[in-house]
Structures are given as C-alpha cells and as structure tokens.
C-alpha cells in the first residue's frame, strides 16, 4: 500500500482560481490562495497567465527535470489536487473556481440520470463508444452547464479573459502559434487573464508509462517553451501547475468478480481508479464484504455514498443537483498501482491517475514573475 493523501479544499485548485477572480475584481466563490493573493496585491500585475500542464505532478517534475531547470528553479511549493485527481474534475475546478461537487464534472465517465446513460463527458458520447449524441452537440455542457473564469472576468471583471484549449473556444494549432498570441495579448494595455491548457505530458504517459525518455523530452519541451516565452513578457505573473500527477498501473478485471457483477445495476463510472458502483438495493448491505473477496483492502478503499458525503470527498461546497445520482451507492478508490477495468478486452493504459496515492495527488505551484 502506498502513502494515501486526501484533498485539502482549503489549499487546492479552487483557491488558485479564486485568487484570479479576486485580482480581476470579481466575486469569489471560495478564499484565494494566500501566496498568489500576496504576490498579486504587492505587484498588481497587468497580466495573469494560468498554464496548466496536464499530468505534470510534482513527482514527474522532479524526475524528469534537473534542479537547475527553469521550472524547478521557479517551483515555489506543493499542494494537493481535488478528488478524484483527474482531468475532468480538476481542470473544471481551475476553470470555474468551484469544487467538483459544485461544478458536477466528477470524472471521465459519469452516470447522468436525465438520460439514464453513462457519458464520457469530454467526448460527448456514451461510455466506451466514440459515437456523438445525435440529439445535441454538447450533452454534458447542457446537463452540467458552468460559468468559466474567462467568461466571468469578461462580464463582471476589470479586464479581459481568454481561454486557450486545443479542443474548444480559442483553439491553437501549435505552440508557436500560441506563443505569438500570448505575447500579443500581454503586450496590450488591457488587463488580461489567459488560461493555457497543455494536454502533455498526460497523453504521452497514458500510452508510454510515466518514466520513459520520451516523457523526459516532452517535459523538457514544456520547460523550454515557458522559459522562452517568459523572457518576452513584462508585467505578467505566470502560474504553472497541473491537474494531477501520474502512476504506472496494472489492471484488475471486474469480469472475474462474478458475484460482484451480479450485484451491479449498470457498469462502473467516473474512473478506473475511482470506480462508482450502482448496486441493487438488496445487495447493498454486503457489497463491501463481497468486493473485498475479490480485491485487496491494501489496494482499494471502499466508501458508501453516505460516507462520501460525510467526508466531503468531492468538495466542501454545496452539492450540485444530480450529485447523489452521479456518486452511486459505493466508490472503490485505488491506494495502490491497481485499477479496475471491465475485462481483458478493455482498453488498458500504462500510466493513470484518479486514486489517492501521493504520486497522483501532489501537484506543484510554479510561479514566474515577469517584471
């Protein structure tokens, strides 16, 4: 069993987002991050950039970059991701200022009662398919709509907000094009907030594992790009962080847990390392016992929905409508290198996240002040 870490919602992604809201004179949903609050109050930077490198946890930062690298020299401190430490939940916290239980985007695959389906949120399709919904171009956004920081700043703040994401809104073709756009925005007389999302090194680690030289090269590219662009910026604070870390993983197969499968109403949801189970009512009293007949207590923590809500595992704010349906009856959370997949025929990732190990939970706060 690895070291287990639970989220700290007093010092996490939501606090960073709310410091940005405060700086742009917008109403905060939660307290800000005191470190960022102090820097912004003392220097009143004209431009603020939040650069989110998907999967660049503190362990990956230290493993793949030397101590004298640009990012490590600006590595201020560490903090913990949200639960689950996964892109859907964490990036939506950074982009809304809300905790996962408030914004509703809890994981990659979520059960949505309104349509009685498990939906892959970012892909806008039914779980395990790549077929988009016929009735809407963006089902998840319609069912779980959110108001994003750049929109709030544009509507109610004293600056302009921009969102650079390779899949929607301000789409960029490559990093050179993005660099040109960022320099242009940060050379203007306007007060600007820029959210820059990078799919790497997460995408590469999923397919190659978290340790290969290809990952080192990719993280070095990120380091060099940020060093290069920071040399061209003035009056700008660049906040570099991650949504989660990574861990090389091994699959366990639900298809081999026959008695457990018989208890299930529908397939598991949220994540393979944070699996939500919807269980037949008559089976709920002995679900945990049956689960541990197949999977080890040293590998997974199992909580009921009531325990999840009491622990405020997904956040301390008010639970969004539909939250109870999304968290099912039980959740099995990995505290090891194991993940639960349907069968040997499932798509298997080499490295993953969404569990409660320190490799996944600890993320860096990197602060680059361009004066």
Q: What assembly state would you assign to the polypeptide chains in this entry?
A: single chain
Spell out the CATH superfamily of the largest domain: Alkaline Phosphatase, subunit A
Distance between the termini: 45 Å
Largest pleated sheet? 6 strands, mixed
Could you estimate the helical fraction of the residues in percent?
Answer: 25-40%
Give the overall average pLDDT: 94
Poorly predicted spans: none
- What is the CATH third-level topology name of the largest domain? Alkaline Phosphatase, subunit A
Write out the strand line-up for the largest beta sheet, numbering strands in chain order. 2-17-8-1-7-6
Tally of separate helices: 16
Shape descriptor: globular
Percent of residues in β-strands:
15-25%
Number of strands: 17
Taken together, the total number of domains comes to: 2
Strand pairing plus helix content: what structural class? alpha/beta
Quickly list its features:
6-stranded mixed sheet; 16 helices; Alkaline Phosphatase, subunit A; 371 residues; Gyrase A, domain 2; alpha/beta; 4-stranded antiparallel sheet; 21% strand
Question: What is this structure, in a nutshell?
Answer:
The protein has 371 residues and is α/β, with parallel strands linked by helices.
Q: What does this entry look like structurally?
A:
The structure is a single chain. The protein has 371 residues and is of the alpha/beta class. The chain folds into two domains: 13-102 and 146-247 and 357-370, 3-Layer(aba) Sandwich (Alkaline Phosphatase, subunit A), CATH 3.40.720; 250-348, Gyrase A, domain 2 (2-Layer Sandwich), CATH 3.30.1360. It has helices at residues 13-23, 34-43, 58-64, 70-73, 87-96, 100-103, 139-143, 149-156, 175-185, 202-208, 213-230, 258-263, 287-294, 305-311, 323-326, 358-361, and strands at 47-53, 75-80, 109-112, 117-120, 125-126, 160-164, 192-198, 236-241, 247-248, 250-253, 269-270, 274-277, 300-304, 330-334, 338-341, 351-352, 362-370. The chain has a six-stranded mixed sheet, sandwiched between helices. Strands 11-12-14-13 form a four-stranded antiparallel sheet. The chain has a three-stranded antiparallel sheet with strand order 3-4-5. α1 (13-23) packs parallel to α2 (34-43) and α1 runs parallel beside α5 (87-96).
């Amino acid at each position: 069993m690895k070291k287990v870490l639970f989220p700290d919602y007093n010092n996490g992604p939501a606090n960073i987002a709310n410091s940005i809201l405060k700086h742009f004179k917008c109403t905060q949903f939660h307290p800000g991050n005191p470190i960022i609050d102090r820097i912004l109050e003392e220097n009143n930077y004209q431009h603020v950039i939040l650069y989110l490198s998907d999967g660049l946890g503190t362990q990956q930062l230290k493993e793949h970059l030397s101590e004298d690298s640009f990012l490590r020299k600006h590595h201020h401190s560490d903090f913990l991701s949200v639960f689950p430490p996964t892109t859907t939940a964490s990036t939506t916290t950074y982009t809304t200022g809300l905790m996962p239980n408030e914004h509703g985007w809890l994981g990659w695959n979520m059960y949505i009662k309104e349509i009685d389906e498990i939906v892959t949120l970012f892909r806008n399709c039914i779980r395990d398919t790549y077929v988009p919904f016929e009735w809407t171009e963006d089902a998840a956004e319609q069912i779980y709509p959110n108001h994003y920081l750049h929109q709030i700043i544009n509507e109610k703040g004293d600056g302009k907000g921009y969102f650079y994401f390779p899949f929607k809104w301000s789409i960029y073709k490559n990093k050179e094009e993005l660099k040109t756009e960022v320099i242009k925005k940060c050379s203007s007389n306007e007060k600007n907030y820029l959210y820059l999302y990078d799919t790497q090194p997460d995408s590469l680690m999923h397919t190659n594992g978290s340790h290969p030289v290809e990952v080192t090269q990719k993280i070095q590219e990120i380091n060099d790009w940020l060093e290069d662009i920071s040399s061209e910026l003035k009056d700008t604070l660049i906040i570099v962080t991650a949504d989660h870390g990574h861990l090389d993983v091994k699959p366990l197969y639900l298809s081999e847990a026959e008695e457990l499968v018989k208890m299930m109403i529908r397939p598991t949801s949220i994540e393979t390392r944070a699996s939500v189970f919807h269980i037949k009512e008559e089976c709920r009293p002995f679900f945990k016992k049956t689960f541990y007949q197949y999977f080890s207590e040293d590998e997974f923590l199992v909580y009921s929905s009531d325990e999840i809500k009491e622990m405020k595992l997904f956040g301390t704010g008010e639970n969004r409508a539909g939250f109870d349906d999304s968290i099912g009856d039980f959740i099995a959370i990995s505290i090891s290198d194991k993940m639960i997949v349907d069968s040997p025929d499932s798509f298997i990732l080499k490295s993953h996240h969404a569990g409660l190990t320190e490799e996944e939970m600890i993320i860096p706060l990197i602060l680059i002040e361009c004066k």
